[in-house]
Amino acid sequence: MKEYFKFDERGTDLKTELLSGAATFLTMAYIIFVNPGILSAAGVPFAGAVTATALGAAVMSILMGAVANRPLALASGMGINAVLTFSVIGFQQANVPWQVGMSVIFIEGLLILLLVVTGFREAVMDSIPLNLKRAIGVGIGLFITVIGLNEGGIIRPAPITMVSLGDFSQHYVWVTLIGFFSTAFFMAAKIKGDILWGIISAAAAALLLGVTAIPQSAFAAPHFGTFFAPFQTVNGQLALVQALAPGLLFAIFAIMLTDFFDTMGTVVAVGEQAGFVNADGSVRDIKKILIVDSAAAAAGGLFGASSITTYIESAAGVAEGGRTGLSAIVTGLLFGLCAFFAPLIQMIGGGYRLPNASHYCLMVNSGFTPPADVIPPGTGDYFVYPITAGALVIVGSLMMKTVRDIDWDNFEEALPAFLTMIGIPLTYNISHGIGFGFISYTAIKLARGKFRQVHPLMYIVSAAFLLSFILASR
Q1: Does 447 lie in the same domain as 432?
Q2: What mean pLDDT, rounded, does the chain reach?
Q3: Exposure pattern of 167-205 as b/e (b: 16+ CB <10 Å)?
C-alpha cells in the first residue's frame, strides 16, 4: 500500500490519508440528503435516488483513488442535478420522464469521455471565452440559490413582481432559517463538515417544530429502482432513444458544457493546494483524472444519480494533509455505508406535503405537472424541502467566487457574462442562459469588426441557440 500510493514521495502516511478521507466525506456528505430531495421533485423514487447517490459517489471516488491516485472525491454534482430536475425534466420539458432525463446525463457523459480520449476536450474548452466560462458557474450558483429560497419558503410567487417574501409564520420557513444560519455559523467558525452540521441542526429544528418525525427504522436495504434508467422502457420506447429527440439536444450540450468547466476548475484548484499542478498551470495525471471524471458523468446517468463529478470539497481533505488516492478511497467507502440508511436520509432530505396552503411553490406554478404519486393534481398541495434548503443557498453562494475574475472593465466581455449569469436563474434553464451569453458575445464582436477574435465553433453554436429560441417561441 505504501509503495502503490507513493506515501514517501508525496510526504504523507496512512493515518493522514485516513483522516483526510473522513474530512472530505464530512464536507460533502450533504449531497446524500440534498440530491435525492432535488431529484424526487421530478418523480425519481427517493429511496432509489439515495442508493444511487451513495453508491455512485462510492464507486467513482474509489475508482479515482485507485486509477489516478489523487485525493479527488466524486459525487452527484450540485447545479446539474437542479438543472436536470427543473429544466430538463421539469419546467421547460414538462412531459419528459425522469428516465429520459437520466439518459441525457448518460449521453453527455459518454460524449465527454469520447472528447477526453481523443484529446478534443481541451480544444473545445479553448473555443469558449474565459469570461463566459466563469459566468456559467456564477449563473448556476444563482440558480441553486433561487431554488433553495423557494424550497424553503423564503420567497414565493407574486402576480406583478414575480416573487415576494414568504410566509414567516410557517414552521418550515423557520426550519430553513435555522439551517441557513447554523451552516453560516459553522462555516465562519471553520468547523469541518459545516454544511453537514447545518443540515443536522435544521433536522433537529424540524423535529422540535413538528415539521418531520423520526422514522420507525433508520436501516433499509438499498433500493435499485433507478439503476440502468437509460435502458428502461417508458411509454413503449427505450428511454435512451427518447433522449435523442431534437428538443433535448441542447440540454445535452448545456450539461456537457457545465461538466467541462466545473471539473477543470476543481482539479486545478485542489491540485494547486495538493501540489500536483506544474508551474505552467498544467496538471499532472490530468488524462487519468479526466477519464475517471467523464466516466463518472455517464455512470451518474446509468445509476440514476444525475451527473457525478469531482468535488471542490476535496480541498478539505487536502487541507488535512491528504496527498494520495487513498484519501478518495476512504471517502468512497464511507459513502458506500450510507446506502443502507435510506429512511433516515429521507427524513432529512425528503419533501413535506403542505395541503392547500397559501404559499405556492414555483415548481407548481410554473406549469410543471408532477407525477400523481408525488403531488395529486388539482389539490393545491405542494412539497417543501426546508431541512436542506438552507444548504442550497449556502452552496449557491460558494459558487459566486469566480465573479470577481470576470473582466468587468471590458464591455465586450462583461455584457455577455452578465446576460449569462442572470439568464440562467431567470429562465430556470442553464442552456438558455448560455445562449444569451453566446449570442451577445458573437454579435458584439461582429459589430466591432473583430471577426477573428471569435472561434468558428462560437459562430456555429450561437446560430444554433438563436434558431432554437426562434423555434421555441412559435
Answers
A1: yes
A2: 84
A3: eeebebbbbbbbbbebbbebbeeeebbbbbbbbbbbbeb
Q: Are 39 and 350 in contact (CB under 8 A)?
A: no
Alpha carbons 335 and 356: distance in angstroms, whole number = 38
Do residues 204 and 192 touch, judged by C-beta distance below 8 A? no
Q: Pick from 404, 431, 464: which residue ends a domain?
A: 404
Domain identity same for 360 and 456:
no
Residue 200 within a domain: yes
Asked if the structure places residue 424 within a domain, the reply is yes
Q: Look at residue 350 in the predicted model and tell me its pLDDT.
A: 63
Indicate whether 1 belongs to any domain.
Answer: no
pLDDT of residue 360: 35
What's residue 108's pLDDT?
94
What percent of the chain lies above the pLDDT cut of 70?
A: 88
Q: From 102, 117, 34, 111, select the one nearest 300 (Cα to Cα).
A: 102
Q: How many Cα atoms are found within 13 Å in the side-chain-facing hemisphere of 102?
A: 33
Highest mean pLDDT: which range of 179-193, 294-308, 346-360 = 294-308
Contacts of 159 (CB under 8 A, 6+ apart): none
Q: Is the pLDDT at 365 greater than 50, yes or no?
A: no
Query: What is the tens place of the pLDDT at every residue in 60-117?
Result: 999 999 999 999 999 999 878 988 888 788 644 457 899 999 999 999 999 999 988 8
422 and 400, same structural domain? no
Residues 211 and 407: their CA atoms lie apart, in Å, by 45
Same domain membership, residue 355 and residue 270: yes
Distance CA 150, CA 46 (A): 20
Domain endpoint, select from 383, 404, 425:
404
Distances (CA, A) of 82 to 86, 342, 429: 6, 21, 10
Beta bridge partners of 163: 157
Q: Based on the domain organization, do 375 and 414 belong to the same domain?
A: no
- Helix 430-447 × helix 456-472 angle, to 10°: 120
pLDDT level of residue 399 (50, 70, 90 thresholds):
confident
Regarding whether 431 and 374 lie in a shared domain, the answer is no
Give yes or no: residues 188 and 328 share one domain.
yes
Q: Could you list the residue range(s) of the whole structural domain that residue 417 is in?
A: 405-472
What local confidence, expressed as pLDDT, does residue 305 receive? 97
**28 and 174 inside one domain:** yes
Q: Which three cell numbers stand for residue 269?
A: 484548484
Between residues 367 and 236, the one the model is more confident about = 236
- In single-letter form, the type of residue at position 320 comes to E
Number of domains in the chain: 2
DSSP percent split of the chain into helix, strand, coil, nearest 5: 65, 5, 30
